[in-house]
């Protein structure tokens, strides 16, 4: 395996753990518990939400291009749909940073809310044989092809799903 795919997979694992931790913290806050260190962390995330989204989307886009152009992983039909919704996000978030805009969520959340279910569906196709022929072209690479598999669950669609979900959570909860 490539060092790049290993690094991307480790980053996805870290973000998945962060998403789970954020759900636990959300539930504890709803139950009335308060944590000062968590409040400081939330404040920092809020201060840098646009930067975080820009870096995350740029890494996802660059990683996608690296996997297809450098490693030769041919994208399937569902991969292309995920790319359609991921690739504009670095441009939008970079523009928001440059122009000091605070309405990034108005543009990125809809893209991520469409891209995330596609990535989730693609993950299901790869993991369950019952769905392996669903949504695929007979003339192109199969959507059930797994080029990478790390930590027992991380494939390329899982990487995309995690990136979309992290962007949704950050912009929904922390922007502005």
Structure description:
It is a single chain. The mean pLDDT is 89. The chain has helices at residues 3-30, 36-47, 49-69, 77-86, 88-99, 105-127, 156-174. It has one domain. Helix 1 runs parallel beside helix 7, helix 3 packs antiparallel against helix 7 and helix 6 packs antiparallel against helix 7 (156-174). The chain is 71% helix and 0% strand. The chain starts with a helix and ends with a helix. The chain is built from seven helices and no strands. With 176 residues, the protein is mainly α.
- Our estimate of the beta-strand percent is under 5%
Distance between the termini: 40 Å
What number is the mean pLDDT?
Answer: 89
Figure out the total of helices: 7
Computed over alpha carbons, the radius of gyration is 17 Å
Number of separate domains = 1
Order of helices and strands: HHHHHHH
By secondary-structure content and strand pairing, the structural class works out as mainly alpha
- Using DSSP, what is the number of strands? 0
Shape: globular
Helix content: over 70%
Summary?
This protein has 176 residues and is mainly alpha-helical. The chain is 71% helix and 0% strand. The radius of gyration is 17 Å and the shape is globular.
Which tags fit this structure?
mainly alpha, 71% helix
Note the topology.
Elements: H1 3-30, H2 36-47, H3 49-69, H4 77-86, H5 88-99, H6 105-127, H7 156-174
């Amino acid at each position: 395996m490539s060092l790049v795919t290993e690094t991307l997979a480790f980053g996805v694992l870290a973000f998945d753990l962060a998403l789970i931790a954020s759900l636990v913290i959300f539930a504890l806050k709803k139950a009335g518990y308060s944590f000062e260190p968590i409040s400081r962390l939330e404040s920092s995330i809020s201060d840098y939400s646009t930067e975080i989204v820009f870096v995350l989307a740029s890494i996802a886009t660059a990683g996608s291009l690296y996997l297809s152009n450098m490693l030769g992983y041919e994208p399937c039909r569902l991969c292309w749909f995920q790319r359609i919704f991921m690739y504009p996000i670095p441009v939008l978030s970079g523009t928001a940073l440059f122009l000091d805009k605070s309405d990034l969520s108005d543009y990125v959340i809809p893209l991520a809310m469409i891209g995330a279910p596609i990535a989730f569906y693609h993950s299901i196709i790869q993991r369950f044989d019952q769905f392996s022929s669903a949504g695929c072209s007979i003339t192109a690479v199969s959507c059930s092809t797994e080029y990478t598999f790390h930590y027992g669950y991380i494939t390329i669609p899982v990487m995309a799903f995690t990136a979309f979900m992290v962007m949704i959570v950050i912009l929904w909860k922390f922007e502005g």
